[in-house]
Design a protein that fits this description.
single chain; about 325 residues; alpha+beta; Immunoglobulin-like; 8-stranded mixed β-sheet; 5-stranded antiparallel β-sheet
Length: about 325
């Protein structure tokens, strides 16, 4: 009897300590998303869209319908302010097709098959210049969003080279040597594009691609000279043989675009990469992506000061 009373007492204590936990998950709230950039010597370019619920339709039609038209957009460099014009991929000004295709990451031939509208200007007075800051203002449906980015002084790579990986003789990574300037904050972005052609005479890569971890800052190597490597971002997926993932083939010709970026752009890109890498992992730490936009919009307004190198993949 004493044992029974003891067990019942333990059970009653356990039940008395339980508490129902109710998690209040906020509902979806649609937000404006800005995706803009300005490069040295290039016009500003901005895409505006609306965020989608995680449970929303995800086909091509839904994607195209998310883009916003009819906004008022201006860019200022401190002395000149220009209102951007709205252009669509199926009605581009002659000669702008390669530029737009590169920005969107799709072949020139496919531009006319979709209708994506963005905002830009052909006024050379607002093209990107090293050392200048660029203020973006977007007005849409009674709301105003602003952002500022800077085109930093570029930092060039000392050298680029390729070497076989491990016991392989015909495949390897792209390598580079960088001397980081002392006494200042620096952040960088690495992009690459193979320009040698396939059996049909088309370049292997239609546009510049970013490998994972392609943005980094000098927190741990400020003022040092060091070597590093990046993989081939196009050499992943079902079409790549086992053991050759991320590698460039012997005799590949690779254009490397190495850009210096400001701190705001770095923090956005870094956190975005982390979020994409851990998506769907229930044990990963949730990642909030910062942005440099005020007014309640999501996204980034980014300035880039690139330098270019051509790497021929031979030892």
């Amino acid at each position: 009897m004493k044992k029974l009373i003891y067990i019942l007492s333990i059970i009653s204590v356990l039940f008395a300590c339980t508490k129902e936990v109710v998690i209040d998950i906020p509902g979806f709230e649609e937000q404006i998303v800005l995706d803009g950039r300005i490069d040295t010597g290039q016009p500003p370019f901005l895409l505006i869209s609306k965020s989608k619920d995680i449970y929303a339709q995800t086909d091509l039609t839904a994607f195209l319908n998310s883009f916003v038209t009819g906004a008022q957009v201006t860019v200022s460099n401190g002395t000149t302010t220009v209102q951007l014009i709205e252009v669509c991929t199926d009605n581009l000004p002659p000669g702008s097709e390669p530029f737009v295709a590169e920005l969107l990451g799709i072949p020139v031939a496919d531009l006319a098959t979709v209708s994506i509208c963005g905002y830009t200007s052909l006024d050379p007075l607002i093209f990107g210049e090293v050392g200048k800051s660029y203020d973006l203002t977007v007005s849409f449906e009674g709301e105003t969003y602003t952002a500022t980015t800077k085109i930093e002084v570029p930092v060039s790579l000392d050298a680029v080279y390729w070497k076989p990986d491990g016991n392989l003789t015909n495949y390897g990574f792209s390598w580079a040597t960088l001397s980081d300037p002392p006494g200042q904050y620096d952040a960088y972005m690495w992009e690459s594009k193979r320009i040698n052609t396939d059996a049909n005479g088309d370049p292997l890569d239609a546009s510049f691609l970013r490998p994972f971890g392609s943005v980094f800052d000098d927190e741990f190597f400020g003022g040092l000279t060091f070597d590093f490597f990046f993989d081939n971002p196009a050499a992943h997926g079902s079409g790549v043989a086992d053991g050759l993932e991320g590698l460039y083939a012997l005799n590949d010709t690779v254009v490397i675009r190495f850009s210096r970026i400001d701190k705001g752009v770095f923090e956005f890109m870094e956190k975005k990469d982390i979020q994409q890498a851990t998506a769907g992992n229930p044990f990963a730490t949730p990642t909030n992506i910062p942005n440099n936009i005020t007014g309640g919009a999501l996204g980034i307004w980014a300035g880039y000061s690139p330098t270019f190198d051509t790497l021929i993949c031979v030892p």
